[in-house]
Amino acid sequence: TQLLEQSPQFLSIQEGENLTVYCNSSSVFSSLQWYRQEPGEGPVLLVTVVTGGEVKKLKRLTFQFGDARKDSSLHITAAQPGDTGLYLCAGPMDSNYQLIWGAGTKLIIKP
Amino acid sequence: EAGVVQSPRYKIIEKKQPVAFWCNPISGHNTLYWYLQNLGQGPELLIRYENEEAVDDSQLPKDRFSAERLKGVDSTLKIQPAELGDSAVYLCASSLGTGSWGLFFGEGSRLTVL
Lengths: 111, 114
Fold this sequence. Notes:
The complex is a heterodimer of chains A (111) and B (114). Chain A is mainly β and 111 residues long. Chain A has strands spanning 5-7, 10-14, 19-24, 32-37, 44-49, 55-58, 61-65, 71-76, 85-92, 99-101, 105-110.
């Protein structure tokens, strides 16, 4: 059972469209991190959200942490082919600081 | 500033052979991680070091996998003997600390066991 469920698992859309991907849990996390991974590369940290209800923007990417700190979303406005990649969310278990990872959302933006 | 450096990038071996991966973390990062990643999946932790100490190795298959970080900087992950199911990407990451600190990953070492 995944402690962090990401949805959808796969998303393929046209350039210029908007999209939202989700990272959900039944557990409370003190923070959640979002990473993007391109083929043949390691994941790259995009953002860390810490406060319940927090919204962070990174150019066309908007990250939100749920009020109860159990879920997070990533919204991309006017998606571009360069946004293609595997989007991973991860959060620390407070008991031992082990980082729990979701299985990822594979995003393809078609030109 | 240099990022996390891993080598080799690619390795092809026959089953039952040994293999070793090397990682040099970002300078000043005390926490070092080794992850295994299968295609299209999230990373799975193998071992986490705080300086020289392995603080979480519960997911490391200790019958065939071993790791060391002798001087609290570079680290080596070894598999002996390799099995077909070990084919995966082995990622090394480092961070300033645990908890909310983000991880910085290397490019990974892709292992193919024939």
